[in-house]
Amino acid sequence: MDSIYLKIRAQALIIASQYPPADFYQIYADEIQYSADIFIQDALIIELRDFVETQIENDFGHGMDHANKVAVDAGALIAIEGKRAACSSSQVQHLVRMAHCAGLFHDIRRKEESHARKSADYAAEALKTYDFADADLTDICIAIRNHEAFKDTEDAATLEGAMLSDCLYDADKFRWGPENFTHTVWDMVAFGKIPFQKFIMYYPKGVAFLGKIKPTFRSSAGKACGPQFIDLGLAIGRDLYGYIQTEFAEYF
């Protein structure tokens, strides 16, 4: 990565550290821990994590680290929504595992056109040898197809499938907050070899675009907590732009 971008990324990390974590991680600490425990202990999820790690590309800001975070947060969200829907503990556990599967595979074809559909197709093929009911596999793939913002969505056949779809979407869009400036944008800039002059030209518009995601959260917990992720990201983005304008004034 260009030395200028390395310096800006380092400053972004400093700025982000000065903001508190999103409230979601305190309010739902128990559900997050529950999801994380399954994610690191469940034999099926361990096997799928190992498989995805060999297949996913890590140079575009949507690699294994992104997949892991989306999977755990999607699992936490489905635990929250499952309890609200009066699902049994065994149903919730099963839905959390499904959320983990969807999270792990949702961006496995991220660099391709129509990546959500192609990632779903890939997941359908990869998961068919595992112990999933046909209806469960269908719900996982619908959730993956539905995770892009500002696109038409496909209706799930069941309440559980709809919850899974909503929770995967919201967990993915949580990443549009602080993580956009601490991780994602720099990986994408490095991959695309974006000239710095072009980067600063489009930066304000790109930051403003993040705000459009705020009204799109879908689950109850996502609607309650998601906008704060975006607000934190916007604040970090504005602070970082001030630093860029001062530190690299000769480019303006």
Task: Describe the model.
The chain has helices at about 5-15, 25, 30-40, 45-55, 65-85, 90-105, 115-125, 135-145, 160-175, 180-190, 195-210, 220-245. With about 250 residues, it is mainly α. It is globular and about 60 Å long. The chain contains twelve helices and no strands. Helix 9 (about 160-175) runs parallel beside helix 12 (about 220-245). The mean pLDDT is about 95. The protein has a single domain, classed as Hypothetical protein af1432.
Task: Considering the chains and any ligands shown, give keywords for the structure.
mainly alpha; Hypothetical protein af1432; 72% helix
Q: Short description, anyone?
A:
The chain is mainly α and 252 residues long. The chain is built from twelve helices and no strands.
Unreliable runs: none
The CATH topology name reads: Hypothetical protein af1432
In terms of DSSP E residues, the strand content is under 5%
Give the full name of the CATH homologous superfamily. Answer: Hypothetical protein af1432
Query: Average pLDDT value?
Result: 96
Give the number of DSSP strands. 0
How is this fold's topology laid out?
Elements: H1 3-17, H2 24-27, H3 29-41, H4 43-55, H5 64-84, H6 89-105, H7 115-127, H8 134-145, H9 159-174, H10 178-192, H11 196-210, H12 220-247
Helix pairs in contact: 1-10, 1-12, 3-5, 4-6, 5-6, 5-9, 6-8, 6-9, 7-8, 8-9, 9-12, 10-12, 11-12
